[in-house]
Amino acid sequence: xxxxxxxxxxxxxxxxxxxxxxxxxxxxxxxxxxxxxxxxxxxxxxxxxxxxxxxxxxxxxxxxxxxxxxxxxxxxxxxxxxxxxxxxxxxxxxxxxxxxxxxxxxxxxxxxxxxxxxxxxxxxxxxxxxxxxxxxxxxxxxxxxxxxxxxxxxxxxxxxxxxxxxxxxxxxxxxxxxxxxxxxxxxxxxxxxxxxxxxxxxxxxxxxxxxxxxxxxxxxxxxxxxxxxxxxxxxxxxxxxxxxxxxxxxxxxxxxxxxxxxxxxxxxxxxxxxxxxxxxxxxxxxxxxxxxxxxxxxxxxxxxxxxxxxxxxxxxxxxxxxxxxxxxxxxxxxxxxxxxxxxxxxxxxxxxxxxxxxxxxxxxxxxxxxxxxxxxxxxxxxxxxxxx
Length: 388
What we know:
Layout: H1 15-42, H2 50-54, H3 73-86, H4 88-108, H5 111-122, E1 128-131, H6 141-144, E2 148-152, E3 155-166, E4 173-180, E5 186-192, E6 198-202, E7 214-225, H7 236-271, E8 273-274, E9 277-278, H8 283-311, H9 317-341, H10 353-365, H11 370-382
Parallel strand pairs: 1-4, 2-4
Antiparallel strand pairs: 2-3, 3-7, 4-5, 6-7, 8-9
């Protein structure tokens, strides 16, 4: 019996999808897992793994056309889970690139923009980032963006700052969202690395997702051609459509992070001995393991059904928000119990669990805090907005 997929949800996938997951897991276990702690401790990203990841055909899995795989959101979810089970930092790199960046182009780009960017991004030959959050604007992005865009002939001039932008220190293209000074609406722009006035600076000293190269971006009179404006991103509602789609991925990341901690705690319980026998034979330890598995199983059932709704084009914003809020909350509980089970060894990097505990804090907050997602669901339940 699979002690992580306890209700055998992956068995619903066709054989070719399970084969892809087997290949991916082989790559992650042999190439990523052995180096994850080293890179995390040094705040470095394993760039050498990007090219082989591209050969696994997992980039933009659920997108169709433009040479993209056209597989299901359910398969994409299990891919995200396995990445996060191994290293939440690498899963975040993957989600920013294939979800937020590719998703912005896929949903909001012109045919020319899609044809130019999506095929090489699918192959991980071109890497993307997504610039929405600002130093003074996080949850209030729908109303309070301070980054501005002003049109001058066939160009747009962008000024402002962005913060916490994953991949931005090395991405080939950064999707930057800015407020048009003319009509006050939020629009999206494709800023290519090396654009004059575009300065990304790596954020140092993080205690979570340390391998992710987050940047603080300064935009000083950046000139962007009209051809690089996302042609179908005209209001924040278009930005929100991207976030709604990728919120599912964050919920899957939370499940993967939970499983990563749980798997290591379970293995530890079988090997660690106290009072002359493995601690896994004690009632209180088994109680912790079962509570962890319950959290994981409930969360996995939820995200699997959410992805099925997404594949059927029936998923709502409220359903995505409930999944993000619930799964990240249960993740926090689960990684905490894994650390508790391992005692003092739980805070040592060599035992892995401490990395998952720290990374869970970032996953709990990004792409919509629990509180903001709760308000989205609460509005749907009551018909009353409690945002302000």
